[in-house]
Fold this sequence. Notes:
Layout: H1 2-19, E1 36-44, E2 53-54, E3 58-62, E4 68-72, E5 75-79, E6 86-92, E7 98-108, E8 117-126, E9 142-146, E10 150-156, E11 161-166, E12 171-175, E13 181-187, H2 189-193, E14 201-207, E15 211-216, E16 221-225, E17 230-234, E18 241-246, E19 252-257, E20 260-265, E21 271-276, E22 290-295, E23 310-314, E24 319-325, E25 331-339, E26 341-344, E27 368-372, E28 375-379, E29 383-385, E30 396-403, E31 426-427, E32 430-435, E33 438-439, E34 443-446, E35 458-461, E36 470-475, E37 481-489, E38 494-499, E39 502-507, E40 512-517, E41 524-528, E42 537-544, E43 552-557, E44 560-561, E45 573-580, E46 582-592, H3 617-637, H4 647-650, E47 660-666, E48 670-676, E49 681-688, E50 702-703, E51 708-709, H5 716-719, E52 742-748, E53 753-758, E54 763-773, H6 777-793, E55 809-818, E56 825-833, E57 839-846, E58 850-855, E59 861-866, E60 883-889, E61 893-898, E62 905-910, E63 928-933, E64 938-943, E65 948-950, E66 970-975, E67 979-984, E68 987-993, E69 1000-1008, E70 1015-1021, E71 1024-1030, E72 1034-1039, E73 1044-1050, E74 1058-1063, ...
Antiparallel strand pairs: 1-76, 2-3, 3-4, 4-5, 6-7, 7-8, 8-9, 9-77, 10-11, 11-12, 12-13, 14-15, 15-16, 16-17, 18-19, 19-20, 20-21, 22-23, 23-24, 24-25, 26-27, 27-28, 28-29, 30-47, 31-32, 32-33, 32-46, 34-36, 35-46, 36-45, 37-42, 37-46, 38-39, 38-45, 39-40, 40-41, 42-43, 43-44, 47-48, 48-49, ...
Keywords: Coiled coil, Cytoplasm
InterPro entries: V_SNARE_CC, WD40/YVTN_repeat-like_dom_sf
Region (Disordered): 404-430, 900-926, 1159-1213
Amino acid sequence: MAFFKDSFSKLVDAVNQVKGPKTEGYRGQLCAEKLELVDEGLLGLGAVPETLTSSSSAVAFATNAGHVRVIAQDLDVTLRNPAAPVQPQLLLLPRPGLVLLIGVSARVACSENDPPKSTWIAQWWDLADASPVAQAAQAPPAAAELRFAVRACDVCVAEQLVFLGTEEGDVRVFDVGERVHLASYCVPGLSAFRAAQPSPVCALAAEGSAELLVANGAGGLLLWSFEKHRVVRSFDSTSPITSILWCPKGTHFVAASQHDLGLFARGSSSALARFTWPTRGDAAGLAGARLLHWEESEAPAPATSSTFGHLYLRAAQRGPLQRWSGDNWTVVDTLLPDVLAATRGPATLANLGALGGSSELSCEGPVFLALQPNRLMAVQRKSWPITWQSLPLVDVTSLELLPSSSLASPPKPAPSPVPAEPVPGSESGRRWAVKDGELQEGVTCSPEGEVPSDDGWFICSGPEQPEEPEALQWQLEVDAGEVHGEISFGLDAKVELRLGELVLRFDLAEQGLAWENNDQSPRSEHVELDLAPGTSHTVKAHFEELGTENGLFSLEVDEVPLPLPCPRSPLEVLEWRCREGELRVRHLYADPLEPEPDRALEPETALAEPMDAVATPVEWVQQMWALHQVHLQSFLQGTHEATGPPAELAAELSLEDAEGLWASGHGDGTLRIWLRRRSSLVLLHVLSVSPPATPYAWRPRYDVATAAPATSSGDVVDQLVYDGIDAAPAFATTSDDLVGGISAVALAPMAAAVAAGTGGGEVLCFLWRPSWSKLTNSEAAEWRVQSLLAKSESDDGSADCPAPTDLHTYGFVCAMRLRQHQVGINHLKLLADGSSAPRLLLCSSDAAGVLCITDGLNGQMLFASSFAIGNRSSGPAPPPETVEAVDFSSCILQAATASATGREHEAVRLSPTPPNDPNGPPGQSTGAVLVALSSGQLRQLAAHAAEFRLLDSRIRETRLPQLLGGCGRVLLLKLTEAFLLVVQATGASLFTRDRSDQLQLVSSGQARFSKRAMCAELCEMAGESCFFTFCGDTLELWALPGLHLVASLPLHRDAARVDAGYLCPNGLMLLRSRSGHHLRLCGLAGNPVAVAPKAAWRSAALAEALGGKDESSLPAAAATSTGSQSSGMFGHAMALLRGEADRGGPPLRAVLLGERARPAEVDGDRADQLRGLPPAWRDLRPKDPPARAGTAAGTAASAAGAAKGAAPAERAAANVRDELAQTTQRALERGEKMNSLANRSQRMAEDADEFLNLAKQINARQNRWF
């Protein structure tokens, strides 16, 4: 019995150990009722090309799911479509405050037993008439079902009418006035074109407010008069028309077809001229082009002139945007190639790149919006990317989100005591032979006259005579110690290292090292090494008491120990000899054997020179933004000069409502830095990991052959198109390094640095220099490598590449390149080490398990190792061990055993030695890097003076606790002063600091998730520490340290179609769609009441951007509209929003919608009845309850009062007249239907009698005997 009790007790203890010690219940203030998940809309582009449009101060388009994006200079709003998914076909802004979307939906209501059917619908958001304007953006749109498919449209802004060309061959009139509905007026296609079969309408163009050009798919082209209700002229066309455009005066028009472009006069049926589409160059795809704008010449032309002004058009399928000019339009200028959609843009496009009015740029001629595959461009004589809000946030492959605390100014460090004067030639006992390529005292070189190069490396070249090699000799003058060296080899170099009688021969051609021992028993052996030309290698020699029986000697190359014998004589002289090729020495020094105190990894603070170039992160952000504006201005003004940003321009960017900094990596190799504000996103700077094809003064691109900045080259179009990139390396990288674009990014505001890792395994670190600086050592080294490769690839191998010219740059410079990785980078992290000798630690890991730690300032390799486990068995290979998370610690974590409860629990103890404590034990490291592996192990690296060392996990003192098994990859690894948190895909582990001993971290709890998490982040809500996870369709918030689930908040249904999530400590979350077209922004708010003012401000700004203000402030519409306002299906006439129209009487509305009599053939409702078709319009809005009053006047009065209590008397009277007219019309229609039914019944009776007679006759014939 005692045996069973003991076994049961052990089982209970084991279960409790898995679950963790029992903790008290959650006593915090957080609860699900106090939390709200706010969907702040979509980010990025993701536009359907056919829906691109604009207003006077905003850009609008629809997404693939049917949501509408409205983006202005300080506004980015998503009008959510509750009927999504909807396939958008048209997006119009026909009047101030109204957004009209026409598309195909699969969720229109049918009967309960029938499945959903696909049908055309019209949806509109009326922001001007929303009862509270603050809720306009949140109100669902009104909707109506359309019986017909829409193939073309045009807008008459003055009369607030939209003409819809249908697939049935008719033209319907859509009233977008105060009461949006489909009018009964119809342009009949069969009678107008005199056709036997209906043909869909493919192009429309309204001239003024009285006539309409209509083209159908059968090649017909006619001019319809609304006043006469008939066709006034037909025009000759050789093929179906795809686009029509009136000239500004309304006397001529052009029609584009599949074969040519026809020029017509209003009073002539034949074409005045025809222009065949060119078939050469990028204009080969102009067949079926879309006509955008016709700009006539200012000077009057004679009657016989063939100058027609400027014509702007775009090819139908991903072709160029062109401008035709000259006699007979023979001069063709390509403004922008590869355009998906284009439309006339607002005049404010001239300052789309800036926030302040002082940055406004003057442009000549019209400005267009042009949509390319991954960007939205502003096109005039030159083209530049539109950087409003999140428009450039496309093709995102990696993201890092930093909270607003990253912009806080660091505390000023306490003044440190002035150190004593160091001994000449030494630093804390260190003796230098070569320092940054400069020779120190006690070092000689032969032959004399050698000088160090200008890039920080001392160079020894191969000799002309083999018996006179170039050598570097150094008198050590130490009995014991360590010699460290950083060297680099040229291509096919052969170098000797002489250590007394020991000779080491490095041979890059053989990829190895051969050594000889010239003592009493000479012998020679060969060791294979991985030696790459142009790559930095480290050499370390340790020696003690040489020449005695207790002598010790060891030598390491790139931290690889070599099996070398111990020299028998003391080491007095160290000598490097270059036999062939080139030897480059950067550092060579000796340290005494006495241990030195190690530096700790301190928190991120203000850095000393040369990293403390920017006073605060706020100033850095302002300078980045200002320099970005200066570059755009320089391009548009044609100066192409590299100038610094003026202080007054930088001060225009306000950071009062800043919420954080973002860094995004993109598939094209660009990296963008963003400022997230209360309701907007500001693009600060754009970098590229490779130099673009077109260089500029602020981003020079060097030619290796001449070592001079390359001038602007390429096509003229490339010189007129700006890509918006502000900084890039001076030398191009290989194309293999950009596979998959940028796979990881890291941002360090305190150090004004940003790092990028590519899909090919290359890592680049950029540092900000707010002053003119020369080429960095990294760029000079890259030139050296590429020049050697170019020399080796030459025919005779003697091509000499000159040194790079002295060119100054401003802003970001490439400070480091790392090519240690062979596969894509999956994790990057930057840490500004603010110790006495500042470093910028850059930690990078790849998918093959290789972890590297480098100094971003000088490129020094501090650690490089692979955690991948080799396959020792003959079975299938296990998955590679990869690094999934990294965090920095100010001290080493050590394992301990705590027995306070009588049982042994796994615990973690902090090193008792504080950082930089001079009284600590010698040789004790006080800094560490924590590494979480895919197998669930936690490893740590100890920070020493010039390197990091991996601690042995088999030793109890340095072994960290094991994570939860079977919980998937590590999503979050965070070490704070109170706990160590590790979040995995299906669980979390927390190690809190023991209250009885502040130096211990005891395993306090583990939790399992109900759903698999995609990402996790530590945050603070209402003053409490917690972390939140994204689990596909829900957001879960967990309180710390008890691991208590506070809330599980559901996300929008579109969240289930995401493939990646990015979280920010301030509660923001970005979800990337599987298609990659856009990002969804969500926010976790701890106070729902605080969300309402933010939404109200955004809704009011949206209504103002679209012109949706009070009626008293709306401009009046003109009686007629000009032809230049109409640009076909892909254009829009927004003269009313631009203030170009003057509202007078409504003649066209009176003709089409008034009470005057109209011919029966233009009555669409009657035509539908005669054809036996269902109604063309079905309102999907919920019906109001019936009024108690039985009279039509009472019904109209109650409806007017319910609509708006403060409506004027004129509006109520108009509603009454409309109701009476509709009632009369319905009565007439009912009488006509009854008469038609009676006539049909009579005809059916007559047909039945005739059928009976025929049947009798047939029967009589069949019964005859003959």
